Amino acid sequence: MTFKIATIEGDGIGEEVVKEALKVITAAGVDFQATKFNLGAERYLKDGKVLPENELDALRKFDAIMLGAVGPPIGSTDVPAGLLERGLLLKLRFSLDLYINLRPFIAPKGSVQEDADFAVVRENTEGTYAGEGGLLRQNTPFEVATQGSVNTRFGVERCVRFAFQLAMKRRKHLTLVHKTNVLTFSGGLWQRTFDEVSKEFPEVKTAYNHIDAACIYMVEKATAYDVIVTDNLFGDILTDLAGAVTGGIGLAASANLNPEKTGPSLFEPVHGAAHDIKGTGKANPLAAIKSAALMLDHLGEETIAQTITDAVTVESQILATKDLALTTSEIGDRVAERVANANNSN
Ligand code: NAI
Ligand code: MG
After folding, report:
1. Which of 73, 74, 139, 281 has the fewest other C-beta atoms within 10 Å?
2. Ligand 1 atom closest to Cα of residue 276
3. Nearest C-alpha to atom 43 of ligand 1 is from which residue?
4. What are 39's strand-pairing partners?
5. In angstroms, what is the span from residue 213 Cα to ligand 2's centroid?
6. Residues whose beta carbon lies within 6 Å of some atom of ligand 1
7. Catalytic site residues?
8. What letters, b where the CB count within 10 A reaches 16 and e where it falls short, cover 173-192?
9. Do 99 and 48 contact (CB within 8 A), yes or no?
């Protein structure tokens, strides 16, 4: 079967890292056809479009979507703040019901939390990101802004259940992260749902951390984590911290999943468009390559996915310990070679 993959290279280094990811899955012998979608800041500046309905409908027909990164250079005012986030990234998550944001971390030696190996399951369609709220008396001294957090039993339960299922495939340990002592309404819903779903998974050991404490543990003993489940905002922040202590932004990969596969899921590195290093060969493509491995795993190619993840882990270790000044495409070549060799020896 030929996988139909839509690619949104986006802006800045997006194109450079997606190219390496495609190079690696080609070397792995994956049968796929890639179709480019021109979306992001550059596209918006060309014709004022962010995500036209017909392009969203076209994307629905693919098996998966690979995204590089979207956004203008920092400091640029050409694109209104939040336009691409709300109009493209969040719109894709909401319309395609990508309700899980899965971010696995494996820390190479030499990183702050070396040997840590855990995954964060972030709820991806609700919470403070749902867009609830508004402004009153804007631009007056009496301005009021509200931005509520939307938490549905249905949304929390499906996210928590996914996390338990993932823990079953790993070391069978799941930590709920929230702020139940202060956010008693949403926190209460999360905690009760977590406790109820946990009864379906008696083999999974559970724990609870407040988000602020989780930030301490993340930099002091992240090796204790196996799977973490949390809401949209806490997950966004905690995974940036997680990335920073497990080898850096160049390694952090993510999957935006529709686990029921009623449509395509979307795979992207956590990092942004990094215009400051565009065209210099300094962009680390490992996060994008690892995201491609998450994509293959989701598409049922678990063995190939594992081979790629292992190759990325080995390569990240070499990059972390040896003083090699490798370019984006050289790193891609090395991973591709490793993956091709692993294939030949099987
Ligand atoms: P950024 O992640 O693009 O860059 C932050 C820093 O990390 C920079 O110093 C950059 O050089 C470095 N960096 C990022 N990726 C790297 C890689 N693969 N290898 C080596 N170094 C890397 O975040 P920033 O600067 O805040 O945002 C730049 C643009 O990207 C903005 O327009 C922002 O809105 C957008 N952005 C897009 C995201 C997405 O598409 N999902 C996520 C985050 C930011
Ligand atoms: Mg973020």
Report:
1. 139
2. 11
3. 272
4. none
5. 19
6. 17, 69-72, 74, 89, 249-250, 268, 271-274, 276-277, 282-284, 287
7. 129, 179, 212, 236, 240
8. bbbbbbbbeebeebbebbbe
9. no
Q: Which pLDDT tens digits describe the chain residue by residue (346 residues)?
A: 899 999 999 999 999 999 999 999 999 999 999 999 999 999 999 999 999 999 999 999 999 999 999 999 999 999 999 999 999 999 999 999 999 999 999 999 889 999 999 999 999 999 999 999 999 999 999 999 999 999 999 999 999 999 999 999 999 999 999 999 999 999 999 999 999 999 999 999 999 999 999 999 999 999 999 999 999 999 999 999 999 999 998 999 999 999 999 999 999 999 999 999 999 999 999 999 999 999 999 999 999 999 999 999 999 999 888 878 899 999 999 999 999 999 887 6
Q: What is the helix (H) or strand (E) element at residue 236, kind and residue range?
A: helix 232-245
Q: Which two tokens stand for residue 260?
A: 């029921």
- In testing the pocket of ligand 1, which one of 39, 122, 249 has its CB within 8 Å of the most ligand atoms? 249
